[in-house]
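Now for one record.
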Amino acid sequence: MANYKDDLKLLDRVAVGAMESGDCEGTQQGVGVRDSKLAGLGVRISQYTEWNGRAIMKIFVAALEDANYHRESGVVEGWLAGEPVVRGGAV
């Protein structure tokens, strides 16, 4: 049974693998290694969900909730429920 730290190491390998494969080209220009890893993880999440925007947003909601960003999570849940997206507004 994997533990939290093992899972983090696995996610790091997934992110680095995406970077090294070139799948992130165009998403990481002018950013640091950490941001490049985040882009790599994002690309793999997109591929994992088969480019399903709703599934990606559900993953985003779970991540926001885990990080105690409840207000922001509610905004994304509103998008999932079909509420209009307000561009340029404060969250």
Q: What stands out?
A: The chain has two domains: 1-48, 51-91. The chain is about 65% helix and 0% strand. The radius of gyration is 15 Å.
